[in-house]
Amino acid sequence: MSELNSPFARLLQEQVSHEFTAQQQYVALAVWFDARDLPQLAGFYYRQALEERNHAMMIVQYLLDRDIPPRIPGISEVRNDFGSPTEMVALALAQEEQVTAQIEALFKAARDEGDFLGEQFILWFLKEQVEEVASMKTLLTICERAGSDYFKIEDFVARETGSEAEDPSAPSAAGGAL
After folding, report:
1. Phi-psi bin for 65: left (phi > 0), alpha (psi -120 to 50), beta?
2. Are 170 and 123 in contact (CB under 8 A)?
3. Where are the domains of the chain?
């Protein structure tokens, strides 16, 4: 089977769409928080959106580097109506858990095909997903404890999250990471 039509290559192409959809979902969450004057939560999800965009572009760069023509897809519909931060963070956690399953499937496909370069590329994403799921689980716990006092959540986000140092082991993103 040619590399262009391998299950791994097909899953990578699909993952670009998943990452862009996740980006837009995080933008929708950020805008909801922004509209309610919750700048820490809005900023947290705007940063998450950029991270998902960068993940998509890392995959695009990898496809380019492997001479597999990337396809830039449309995205699935995203949810825009929410009732509470707890509901929104639960959605974000479910999204990250779904992405983890997708990344695991990519790793398995690379391994099954004996694609050592693909396997090595996906390892970084597996590490990233451990961090993403843990972050959303913690934020969900904080939201559940804070109840309707959104400012306690804002205080937590301001105190415990922020800009992280650039990961030197991260794959390159097509066009550069934002």
Report:
1. alpha
2. no
3. 3-72+82-160
